[in-house]
Amino acid sequence: MSDRVLLVDDDLSIRETFEHHLGRSGYEVRTAAGGEEALAIAPEFAPGLVITDVRMPGMDGLELLRRLRSGGEDLDVAVITAHDDMRSAIAAMQAGAYDYLVKPLDLDRIDAMVRRCFRERSLRRRVHHLAGEAAEAFGLESLVGHDARMIEIYKLIGVLTGNRATVLIRGETGTGKELIARAIHFNAPQAAEPFIAVNCTALTETLLESELFGHVRGAFTGAVASRKGCFELAGAGTIFLDEIGDTGLDLQAKLLRVLESHEFYPVGGELSRRTEARVIAATHRPLEEYVRSGRFREDLYFRLKVVEIAVPPLRARRGDIPALIERLLDRIGRELHRRIDGVSEDALRMLVAYEWPGNVRELENTLTHAAVLSRGPVISEDSLSLGPRLFAGAGTDASAPEGSLDAVEWSHVERVLRQTGGNKRQAARILGISRPRLDRIISRRGSGVTDRD
Hints:
Oligomer: single chain
CATH class of the largest domain: Alpha Beta
Helix content: 40-55%
Distance between the termini: 63 Å
Strand order of the largest sheet: 2-1-3-4-5
Number of domains: 3
Strand content: 5-15%
């Protein structure tokens, strides 16, 4: 569909001239001789831009502007008039006019205004589309699980979207702390504002301070120009401070000032700046121990944990793993542009039993690796590469001294054999050893493992 323009003017010659010219420029144009006629045309024609004269018999252009804007239609209104006075210009812009133009108008000026309007409308639609994608990607529906602790987290997210409280998210690496922070942001009224994630371990202390607060020109070597920091760029959005426990005491003092006064100083700056950004912090560190040892400020700790969310590790909610696998494979399939129907029963048993020290992030990486290697649409246990890790419920060998190399080796072999149901071929593949070597280990231990290939 072409961009549509509705021209409203009581002068027939102007209507005909503009209709002909804009039509030749590729726009779909309709005209109206007055405000009432324009209101009747607009719902069916659905213009993106209305260009209206101000002084017309009956309803004037400013009243038409107000009526169109109050109707909630997605359109812009430009006002043209032969009377260049400040009062009508202010009134038009206050009523939401896109532009205010004074007659006589040349066609080049009209062309420039119309092109600018539709270019900006296209950008706005793109921004709204991306915001919608972000909200979908990081909304509550992106969080998977029916574990009671996850249900409580969902409830807490719902409460936090209605206020601006500072949040501290605790949990092991890979549990999805940033995903929870994004869910809070993108379900709040400020969802259209920026969400800025900062990894506090990725930069040195000096660079991290500049990243957060910005700097002025000449603040340090290489600062050839002033630069805004994340707290300024975030506007009324959200700053996510990942791994806050790894920051130094000097930076902690400056973060405390932001939380207490909503003010900060750029590096090298003498004038403070304000921020309306919400702070959500995350860590896998034991902050209470850090406070006792003097590595983390106690006052900052309490400022951060106005609301605390504890994310359980994946091994503590194994019942959620099948649903997570389904959700992750759906996304992995789209990214790899291939069909993935799911995992086999044996593969599912292995995935559920695995300890997942890297949590959901490790699960996703494992499934991606398996999807790449798998030749069919169903991922089998042969495609999984879990490495020499522990599985839940595995036994230990009491015949060898605890901690000996022999005992550790057999303990791991036995775990894998239990996991594979005694399938030696599969166990050897997981262990990364040959089948004869596995047979020798089993023979040496005198195990009653049943042969199964």
